[in-house]
Design a protein that fits this description.
464 residues, alpha/beta, four-stranded antiparallel β-sheet, 14 helices, binds zinc ion
Length: 464
């Protein structure tokens, strides 16, 4: 018999829903090696077809994208995003149960990809399935984009969105269902992500290592070239001195500051977690630094002799890797060009761009924030936390800057899901809370759509 409410759907389909997730996790889909990708594409397509979604597999230069669409009563369209690929499972020996033989222990399902992202992907599908079973029809259109390269940096997602933004993908709101809930167990709604520019620099002098006496003052040490460059890149005040680096950086406004004060903050626990003796930052400073300020980080530097004892040498080359987390409207390509200009006059120094992902933001005033918070509260049965910006990097600019819609990040997995690590797991209670949350997201958004949202209130522009 068809369920009449979401709790009934979850209760009466418990075993069936978990079995479906187990079957999906069993199917390998390792994007780095390509193992099982085609079989998983077929499986995910079949799951979409099961809920009456018009489904197609779209080839990209890498692994395909599985796209689905279910028409609803109104033109308004929500795009749900997830990924079907998983990380390689090694070291396999460190798993208590084999990574592709899903196993339930203590209320958690263990297996590679169960949290990141197959359990969350399945929770989206089952939430929509529940809505259809209970209400027969969706209140608006829902589109699904499940990609197969997230674990490899979503290399082809941007060009896919660019190519299909005016037809297949045309939407009013994107929701990315990936990541972890807060440490406390509370669900989280994230509105933005920091971007990333990653560069690798190499300095060379002579074609070989040389004696530091016999050639001292004759050969310029390449490590000095990089050290001098670094000192030009950041002043003693800690401010980055790359030209126009701060263009597009915006301090939080009063409303955003107020939100920062609502995020749980315990400086002692945080200090212990990151291995510092103490953290003297105030709550507002801490979150402002993580969410509204960019970084220039030396990820690695390597040159010369650093093993035991003394060795006098002028190394032939020096290497440097820098990562920059970007915020607001900073443009990684412009920053990269300015780095290129900085190194131009220095002989023997070259740079290459490894990663360039713009930051992405969704305004805190977006009309979708309240309904989605309400949905999470109902789905998880506890107050959600609103995070204006996620300190890490995701390619969310494809939705905000290419598709031109606001994006909300709504993670369902438990904080300790151990994704990318051995013994990845998803708490079954999170799986069910995810199913319920998806159902409530549709239901809560439908209320504001019915309330008569004018086109320009939700489409385009910075007010979303
Ligand atoms: Zn991942």
């Amino acid at each position: 018999m068809a369920a009449t409410n979401i709790q009934e759907f979850v209760d009466s389909n418990r075993t069936k829903n978990i079995d479906e997730l187990i079957a999906l996790v069993k199917q390998k889909s390792i994007s780095s090696s390509g193992e099982g990708m085609q079989e998983t594409v077929e499986k995910v397509s079949a799951l979409l077809e099961d809920i009456q979604a018009k489904t197609q597999v779209i080839q990209t230069a890498g692994h395909p994208i599985v796209f689905g669409e279910i028409k609803g009563q109104q033109e308004f369209t929500v795009l749900l995003y997830g990924h079907y690929d998983v990380m390689a499972p090694d070291p396999v020996d460190a798993w208590v149960s084999p990574p592709f033989e899903p196993n339930v222990r203590d209320g958690r399902l263990y297996g590679r990809g169960v949290g990141d992202n197959k359990g969350q992907l399945m929770a989206q599908l089952l939430g929509i399935k529940a809505y259809l079973e209970i209400h027969k029809q969706l209140p608006f259109h829902v589109k699904f984009v499940f990609e197969g390269e997230e674990e490899q940096g979503s290399a082809n997602l941007g060009s896919f969105v660019e190519q299909h933004k005016d037809d297949l993908l045309k939407s009013d709101l994107a929701i990315s269902i990936d990541g972890s809930c807060h440490e406390s167990g509370a669900p989280v709604l994230r509105l933005g992500v920091r971007g990333m520019l990653y560069v690798e620099l190499e300095a060379v002098s002579a074609s070989q290592d040389n004696h530091s006496g016999n050639t001292g003052n004759i050969i310029k040490n390449p490590a000095w070239k990089l050290v001098e460059l670094l000192s030009q890149m950041q002043g003693n005040d800690g401010k980055v001195a790359i030209k126009d680096f701060y263009k597009g950086v915006q301090a939080p406004n009063e409303q955003e500051k107020a939100i920062l004060h609502q995020i749980p903050y315990d400086s002692e626990t945080l200090a212990a977690k990151i291995g510092l003796p103490n953290l003297t930052l105030s709550q507002e400073e801490y979150f402002t630094k993580l969410m509204y300020e960019p970084t220039l980080n030396i990820s690695g530097i390597n040159s010369g002799y650093v093993d035991a004892g003394a060795k006098t040498v002028i190394p032939s080359k020096a290497l440097l890797k820098l990562d920059m987390r970007l915020v607001g409207k900073q443009n990684p390509d412009e920053i990269y060009q300015n780095i290129e200009k900085m190194i131009e006059p220095i002989e023997g120094v070259s740079v290459i761009k490894m990663v360039s992902t713009p930051p992405s933001s969704t305004n805190i005033d977006s009309i979708f924030v309240k309904p989605v918070l309400a949905a999470l509260e109902q789905g998880f049965g506890t107050d959600p936390i609103l995070e204006p910006v996620m300190p890490g990097t995701l390619p969310n600019y494809v939705w905000t800057d290419i598709l031109n819609v606001p994006v909300l990040i709504v993670p369902y997995a438990n904080f300790d899901q151990a994704n990318h690590a051995p013994n990845e797991n998803l708490k079954l209670v999170n799986f069910e809370s995810g199913i319920k949350s998806t159902y409530h997201i549709i239901s809560e958004i439908s209320k504001i759509i019915e309330g008569g949202v004018k086109q320009n209130e939700y489409v385009k522009g910075s007010s979303i």
